[in-house]
Write a structure and sequence with these properties.
The protein has 166 residues and is α/β, with parallel strands linked by helices. It contains 5 helices and 7 strands; from the N terminus they run αβαβαβββαββα.
Length: 166
């Protein structure tokens, strides 16, 4: 899956590169699971498609942002060194110089098949806040394009998430 993950990144970039080069293009937004695919049933399966920040996958997207002077938003399954037994569903924003300027770990989660434990900051709240700070729960990047925040999938039905970011 690691090779497929990098191939998906390369293919996704190839699909949008021509448009990204245009002077009127300011941001590219890749959808959830665009790179890793979906349908994982176990933590072990999720680990095969997870990334680290920083890491080679984010480096490729950073180079794309720099090359085209464009903001890049997307999502990865993230394995964090401080929480090695958990996978975060993580949205990110790179600026037009390729710098990581925002990261959002999905707050609300649903396990419709009942086989994965909850992989959200709320399920390890005290440890999470101790590591990242309370302000990390609802992050907003202030950019020349305007304020940019992330919500992921199921979070859209919780208006509190949007209100806190607003």
């Amino acid at each position: 899956r690691r090779e497929a993950l990098m191939q998906n990144i390369t293919s996704a970039i190839a699909l949008v590169e021509g448009r990204a080069r245009r002077a009127d293009s300011k941001i590219v937004v890749f959808p959830e699971f665009c790179f890793s695919g979906a349908g994982y049933r176990t933590v072990e399966e999720m680990l095969t498609a997870s990334v680290h920040f920083p890491g080679p996958e984010l480096d490729v997207l950073s180079e794309f942002a720099q090359r085209n002077s464009i903001y890049v938003a997307g999502e990865f399954l993230e394995e964090h060194e401080k929480f090695p037994d958990r996978i975060f569903n993580t949205a990110f924003l790179l600026d037009d110089s390729g710098n990581l300027i925002n990261r959002h770990h999905k707050i609300q989660c649903v396990d419709v098949i009942g086989t994965l434990r909850d992989h959200t900051p709320g399920s390890i709240f005290e440890q999470y806040v101790e590591e990242f700070g309370i302000e990390s729960l609802y992050t907003v990047a202030d950019t020349p394009l305007g304020k940019i925040a992330h919500i992921i999938c199921f979070e859209i039905i919780f208006p509190e998430v949007l209100r806190l970011m607003a």
